[in-house]
Description:
This protein is mainly alpha-helical. It has one domain. 71% of the residues lie in helices and 4% in strands. It contains eight helices and two strands. A two-stranded antiparallel sheet has the order 1-2. Helix 1 (20-40) packs across helix 3 (79-94). The longest helix is centred in the last third of the chain and has 36 residues, at 147-182. The relative contact order is 0.14. Residues 221-227 have low confidence and may be disordered.
Amino acid sequence: MEISPDLIVFLKIGGFTLSATIVFTWIVMGLIVITAWLSTRRLSVEPPLSHWQNLLEIIVTYIREQIREITLQQPDKYLPFLGTLFLFIVVSNLLAIVPGYSPPTGSLSTTAALAICVFLAVPVYGITQQGFIGYLKHYSQPTVFMIPFHIINELSRTLSMAVRLFGNIMSGSMILAILLSITPLFVPIVMQVLGMLIGLVQAYIFAVLATVYIASATRIQEEKVQS
């Protein structure tokens, strides 16, 4: 059992390599798209609602409330990005129970891409909320000498998000592989259940951190006005 999906190669032609990371990432994306289509193809505002619509409404309502509580703002403008981020990581991690599947979040390239998305989303939302000049002003607070430190802080937190998610998923796969080779069947099953729980927690933490970073970028001007 390979620890990282990057090490599992399905096809290699010249300089092109089709790894498990790419394959399973597209599988996860496809499952999310299909589920969204099944949930929304027959939307209704009157009961009885379909099971798919009920499931979708529960998930969306939960994510919206979490965003509202963290940002103290209307969640609708953040929901598409943060909701997609959370659902992708959750589905990627939960599918680890499927034999032969290796979660793409166990690849540093995947977690780095997710962290870069957050890194880029923070200034986009900040500029949208405050304007270009208004957003850039916070880099010089309390003095212009803090500009390098603010930049380093944003780069370091992006790196920590990528490494944290990668490390937890990768270590879970490693522990499961070791237990499969040295213990009876029931012990790896228990560990796999715990791994699913850890996967859920890691998805929640990643999404919450992304929400906090976006909230801090969009509420700077509001806090100045209040003070």
